[in-house]
Design brief:
alpha/beta, D-Maltodextrin-Binding Protein, domain 2, 7-stranded mixed beta sheet
């Protein structure tokens, strides 16, 4: 057999995502390239690794066993790389961070220089909603989590990074009666929410309840990007973090609608379980942030 490490990585990602398309996206490859590598890998086995049923790919029992072995092999390769770099005196290991979905506009700024300085560090960053982020902390699956609303179900320590300001936004072409008071603004105008479990949704609901705002039409979408596109298309209005819509405001694809009580200001915070014993890589990252976070924020806000 002549399968390559690249084929093992691609097959493992297909198994993990359950989709050739999703695997291609996460690996930053084209779908045809992933499909070709899957075929080349399959050609080396007489037993099917996958099967397609109803246009959906399914991994066979044998395929799952191969994936388990592939994961073990890949981890051993990582271990060899880490040991090689450690002998050179380099910081090595994995940095695992879970980030709420709108935090994807924030976290990269705090990672770039650290990752550039430490080439032996592998970054694993999961972008999901707040409920899953908190769950990953509870299970001790990650080193840190980035949130804009602090959880109440776990004990944690935190490092505040950056203010998070949320504004009411709409399409530049949207029309409404500017004399309508805040409480009646959404009686006839659709408001677009994130899904249950989202921190942004929780912030919106708290604002609505605090101000006794009446909601008539309501939509729910499952990602910040989906909400942004819907607002830009004129489907409705939403309360969104400024950090994720700066380009659209600059390009006049969105506009901020003044409303009393807005912006809502929360804080982007890096959190970790109380009394967690950090390994060398996350400890080094924490020390880096304590030293550099103010400089990073200053660059972000230029």
């Amino acid at each position: 057999m002549n399968y390559t490490l690249n084929q093992l990585q691609i097959f493992l990602k297909i198994v993990q995502t359950g989709s050739v398309t999703k695997a291609a996206e996460e690996l930053h490859l084209t779908q045809p390239a992933v499909s070709i590598q899957l075929k080349n890998f399959q050609d080396q086995f007489e037993i099917p690794l996958t099967e397609v049923v109803g246009r959906k790919i399914h991994v066979t029992d044998f395929g799952h066993e191969v994936a388990d072995s592939a994961e073990y092999i890949i981890n051993q390769v990582y271990a060899i790389n880490y040991k090689t770099m450690a002998y050179k005196g380099l910081l090595t290991g994995r940095l695992k961070i879970s980030v709420v979905s709108t935090g994807k506009y924030v976290m990269p700024y705090f990672l770039t220089d650290f990752m550039r300085e430490h080439s032996g560090v592998e970054l694993l960053m999961d972008v999901t909603n707040k409920s899953r982020v908190v769950e990953s902390l509870k299970k001790n699956e990650v080193d840190f989590a980035l949130v804009s609303l602090l959880p109440t179900s776990i004990s944690f320590e935190k490092l505040d990074l950056l203010e998070n300001n949320l504004y009411l936004v709409g399409s530049p072409q949207s029309h409404f009666d500017e004399n309508i008071g805040e409480k009646d603004f959404f009686k006839d105008l659709p408001l677009i929410f994130r899904e249950e479990g989202s921190g942004t949704r929780q912030t919106m609901q708290q604002f609505i309840e605090k101000n006794n705002i009446s909601i008539g039409k309501k939509m729910e979408l499952t990602s910040n990007e989906a909400v942004k596109q819907a607002v830009m298309a004129g489907l409705g209005y939403s309360i969104m973090p400024l950090i994720g819509i700066k380009n659209e405001l600059h390009n006049k694809q969105l506009k901020i609608i003044p409303m009393e009580g807005l912006p809502i200001t929360t804080m982007w915070s890096l959190i970790w379980p109380k009394e967690k014993k950090h390994m060398p890589v996350p400890l080094a990252f924490l020390q880096y942030l304590n030293k550099e976070k103010d400089n990073i924020v200053a660059k972000m806000l230029r």
